[in-house]
Structures are given as C-alpha cells and as structure tokens.
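Input chain follows. Return structure tokens only.
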Amino acid sequence: MESYSNSSPCKKEPICHPVSTCPTSLLDVFLKVNEKFFLCRFSDILKRRGILPDTQSGFREDFRLQTRVLLFFEQVSSLMANSSPVATIFVDFKAAFDQLWFEGCIGKLKQLGIPKDYLRWIDTWLTGRRAYIEIAGKKSRWFNILKGCPQGSIFSPTLFITYHSDMGDFLGFCMSHFFADDLAAVLAGSIGMKFSSQCLDLERKLQLFFENLEFYSILTSQPINYAKTEGIWFARAIGPPKIDISAGENKIRWTNNLKYLGYWITPKLGFGTFTNKSMLKIRQRIGMINRIRIAGPTSPTLRKALFHSFVLPLFTWIFPLFPLFTDKQQQGLNHFYYTCWKTPKFCKI
C-alpha cells in the first residue's frame, strides 16, 4: 500500500523556512475508498470501547466545536466567580500531523486494545511511503517518509487524536480542552487563600504543567511550538501579576487577546472584541454585495442568495455565544442583524 507525496509550502509568503512546509500526499481513489471503509470500523471500536476522552472534540461525530468553546467559557467563568486568579495556556504543537511516530503509535494502539488485524493494516498504511521536493520545476531525489500521517487522508485525523488520547492523563491537575491538535489548559489558584498566595500557587501549577507537558512531548516525539504557545491571565478586579513562565529556555508570552477556535478571548472574558471584529467582517461582505448591485442589474433572488452564502454564516457563528452577551450587546446585535436583513438594497424580501 504505497503512496507518494511532494512537499509544498503551507505559508503564504513566497520565501519561507523549510520547517514551514508540509508534505501533500497524492493518494489514489482506491486507497481513499479503502481508508473510508477502515475508518468506519476503527471509529466503531473507539466508540464502543470509550477510548477517546470527552475532552477531545475534534474530528468526532456528535462532538461540536461550539460545545467545546462553551465548556471553556463556562469553566473559566466559574473559576473567576470564586475570585481565583485563572491562567489559560494555549499550546501549539509543531507540525502536529507530520510528527506522528510510527512505532510509538502502533505500540500505544496495542496497549489500548486495538485488534491485531487493525494494527497490521495501520502499520502497512503508515510505512512504505516516499516523497520528493519540487521547487520551481526542479525535483529532488525520492526519499522515504519515516514519520507523520499522510496529509489529505480522511483517516489521519482520527489516528492522530487516538495516538494522543492519553495526553490529559499527564495533565491531570488542570482542566484540558482538546480540539484535534489544539490544546487549551485552564489552571486556577486554590481558593481560601490571599490573592498573593493564590498567585504563587498558580505559578507553581503553571511550572508543573510545562514540566509534564514537555515530558509528554519527549515521550511521544511530538515537539511543541513554543513561539506560538501563549497564555491569558483572567482576574475580576485585580490586574495580572508579573509572573514569568518558561519551559526550558523558552519563555511563554502573555497576551491580552487571542483567537481560540475562531472566537476572540480577552482577560475580562468580555465579547466586545469578538462582536466588533465579526460585525466589521459582515459590513465588508455586505459592501461586496452592494458593489455587485451597483456594477450591474441584479435581482432580489440573487441578492438573497449572496446574503445567505456570505453574510448569514457569520451571524450563525456568533449565535452559540449570544446568551452570554450583555443586554446591550444582544440589543445591538439584534438591531444590526435586522438592518442587514431588511435593507432593500441588499436583500429585498
């Protein structure tokens, strides 16, 4: 079962470092059909045996991204309600799917009780792949691929999250939220202490978190991209203390806003930044529809179709968090939606 791949840049820049490239696998149709059949059987085993944790929401049936986001906000809000300082670390794994360790993956699947026939299929599917690099029409020699899942395969994401299904066991003292290769870890200071003592306790937990995470990274041969690993400090009344957290020689940067699974997060857990950015994007798309109307004759049916295709999905993306907004934010968003929908020049009904 042999597949081929060539390496193509995954960045938009015309010139980038080799570590910013990823292989693109060229899989034949027969292999894709074979993967689909095997994925159905493999997913059934994972579901019946309860192998995947509930904290993992990526690439799974009946698990939604919005549910993971709402659980994240609920946990942080509950901890902040106790007046505890809360820190959330957003971990970025370096070329996650391209770092899958073949022998380690097969060994872990064996420990999880995956049948031997399935293990042989996965081992055959992972090994024996070759690749070349093509730049400006010039091709390199063929070389063997010794790690990583095939990019573009429907089975790769499921195998990846199964391989890392035990990551939460190494981070048991914090609340972990997984979505595919994204990790958000929520840590809080112990209650019943002074704020200064809570901060010291939280600093100790943060340092222990990175020690355990680094140990897991080495154990599974899954490097961490510390340059893109960031943290947000949440506190109700008192500003964030000056806590410097480092993992080895890598210093972790604190930020005041961060985009997590498509939603903007701020230290006060407000939604002003998210709603403002979403409304700006909606205005830009409505402006695009208006320019089409001005450029030539259009029909109400066409304008309605454009609205449903380019504008309505953005409102749908906001909807899961709507109950968490303030009354003023809800009223403003209601008026904004009504204006966008009812304006005759955009969408006559």
